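Exercise 7 asks you to align residues with tokens for two separate proteins.
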Amino acid sequence: MDVYEDEGLTGTRADKREDFQRMLKDCRKGKIDRILTKSISRFARNTKDCLQTLRELKALGVEVEFEKEQINTGKITSEMMVSFFSSAAQEESVSISSNMRLGCRMRMRKGTYINPSAPFGYQLVDRNLIIREDEAKVVRRIFESYLAGKGIDKIADELSEEKIPKKHGGTRWHYDGVAYILTNERYIGDTLLQKKFTTDTLPFKLIINKGQKDRYYIHNSHEPIISRSDFEQAKLLLEKRNRIHYQQKPPQQYPLSRKIRCGGCGYSFKRKVCSGKTYWVCRSHDQGKDRCGIKQIEEPEFYKAFVRMYNKLKPNCRYILNPLLDQLLALKSRSTMSSIKVSGINKEIAELTDQNLILNRLRSKGYMGSDIFMEQTNEINQKINNLRSLRRKLLGQDEDDKTIAAVKDLIAVIEDGPPALADLDEPLFNSIVDTITVESQDKIRFRLTGGLELNEPI
């Protein structure tokens, strides 16, 4: 017997519920034959996910009993009832989400909405944006460099080389991050609200607001880092450079686009045509030969290497891929995860959750003050989070379903593929090659779907 609960998480997206997915995995392994749940709304608030899951569980021989609705999926007529109740639960979830969004928009109109996150250069203190000087210096530097004529890629490279830390960790700066700073009105002390919005229907998606919803602009909402004149000059320069860029021929997509990375410096490769020949070159090497020693490689060499790799893999598929799949399945069965320890953790989580329920009842009846209630629930929730973190580490040792599925797909594609290749088969290439790493001037490494890596000379 086990307990699976996703406290505080939405029921509209089954893939976001950690314990729900863990329960399904255990069902697929034959560890569960009966599931007891309080109500359909606790099981899932999305009709499609609910019915899809119940059909799979029924095929696995697992019964689901809903206490509130008095429904047992072991009965053949239950699915229609489940459809009705899960639809109601879905509408309830949509209504709750709609009310929350409406509340946010009302606060935006009144100017009382507080954005829950602070951009790079600021920190939130008592619901106010306060300048963080160490980051603000970087923001000023970005604007000064751009107005001095440096390109966005150049600025990103300089910050990366100097290992300037970003907002949420890491020191590798990219074009998009620098461009976002140059276009963010927050740095002149203003705030534009509802740049993005969540769709009104399931599945909820966060999309960019391009006029579909009202946006709210608040002037002088906080202390600026950049002067308005500098911001406007940077904006005009961006627009000018963008016009020049878009007047050029739009970039084409090729089979090798976004697939090649440099094994020396980690940068991606880009396509170049020179003297009638097509090459792929490391972006870092292209900016300066002293930055990366791996030189450009002619495009046909990659395709020839793929053809050779496929022609060797095809007749040896059962000797290479099948043993790999067997090893993954064996690793799954020999998982070092201690089921006894995980069961103990689940029991502790269940007991702590019960304690939270008791505290809620005591507070609702007036037997406990808010301060004591918050202190004790925070302590309990911290313990629950620590236990969940420990459980994730243990469960992380279990099978990787996606890897196994990817290897199975790769085997199917290879087996259904042509007996041999003479030239590049683009659909076949796209379906089995994830990435290509250039190890040296005469050797590349193919990473296939499922994680198998094969070296090939060029």
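Second protein for Exercise 7:
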Amino acid sequence: MGNESRDIGVFQDPSGSGILLSEDRKNGLHIYQLGHDYLSVERLLSTTLKDDGSHGYESPVLIYQDGLYYLFGSDLTGWNTNDNKYSTAESLQGPWSAWRDFAKPGSRTFDSQVSVIVPVSGSERTTHIYIGDRWNRSDLFNSRTVVLPIEIQAGKAQLSWHETWSLDLSTGVVSH
């Protein structure tokens, strides 16, 4: 559609539609609806910017929980980690809420960049697992990941550090 496309993410909407998330340094983070075959872009649904109106976020991740979309992203700071943000909306067309931290401010999202958030549905609850990239720019092959449970409910997302934790896959319950 003539827009720059850098970091991208994909998402399957509850309706079954494919969604493409695409970071455009000049214009923001675009949310596109894909065609029925998921191989073409059908239309632009919305474009998000930072709250100050500047560029959007990269490394986009989208999830849907209890009637609300949660859009996650990392600021454009190159190899330097930052406090990643999230925004919410009832519709992919927006309006999107103000961007907020989901990890402790100043933690630089535990020295990681959001990569994916995986829902694990159990008999008692759905738990979300944050997977973040911890890039080692001098040795990319040996870069690590940060894997933590992330609380997502009622319009809020909260990532906390846990040295150890476990997940009961059958119930979806996390223990610390």
